[in-house]
Amino acid sequence: MSESKGKRIKWADVLRAFALYSVILAHLGSFSQRISLFCFGYVMQLFFFVSGLFASSYRKLDFPALLKKLIVHLLVPHIILSAVNIAYAAFRRIPNWQNGIMQCVLAIRNKIMFPVLWYLPCLIVMTLVYWCLCRIIRNDMLRLVFCLAVSMAFRIFKEPSQWFWSSDSAMMFLFYYALGDILMPVLKKIPASDTPVWKKILAGLVALLCLFPVIKSYEIYNSETPVLFDRILSVRDVQIFTFVSSTAAILLFVALSYLTQNAEMLQTIGRRSMLLFAIQGPSVDLFNWLLWQIGVTWIPRFDWQVLFLGAARLIFSCFVFGGPVYWLLDKLGIKKNS
User: Fold this and answer.
1) Are 250 and 310 contained in the same domain?
2) Residue 119 CB: number of other CB atoms within 10 A?
3) What is the pTM of this model?
């Protein structure tokens, strides 16, 4: 995820902000399994879609330049983020924190002490695979169909993630990366500011059309007996429906991003996405500690309260805790944009 010709794309930054908010909600399962399961149904697809929006800056390179860029923009940040989180775990004396070192090296999804740190190595694998596909399958639509077939096969027939650098997850989410790459030429034609009214109406209609599968997915993920159009869904049916609902969720968030692209707070959150990944652990701990210091015990009992808690954590992480860190990195001249 990078900038386009040195200029930030506002709606893309806002889209990252929505994705970060969804990640936080997904990890609040102890307060609301309903919201958590729903967000896990689309959140990683959304992140890989956002990465795919900027795939052209990778796939157009020759292999040596590609490898250099992957090392600088993805591998080095992964090493730094891993070091920050391992150091914090050691400082907190979290039991078996030493195991986190090897887990960060292997970066296997759902088998790592720091849940977000499998993402960048997985993205490296995905970028390399897609780079190869672009040289084998020149037609965009044929390549998208091929990626769809690969992703569906891995979702339906593959066991839970267990490959080095989450390579199997890279295959599972490959379709969304390709989708972002293919849609970007269309999406970037929409002005970044002063969007005409008719385009806002069109974005609103797209959002409305996507609401049904998104809302239905919320019901299915939280139902003991998932039903669609009076038909009981099998496990495989649910897996296939996940493709439909997650794609609808992506389009919904894209539409919302266009409608809210001038919201400076959301832009700032999106710009600081890499930093927020790095400081999530200590930020949440400090947030809870401050609440405890002022005598507040925050245990959400309703879903709307969980949504509010997630927003509060994200804002605290970005502006209260992350603000000074971001300022310091800026003074040191360290690149922070994701």
Assistant:
1) no
2) 22
3) 0.88
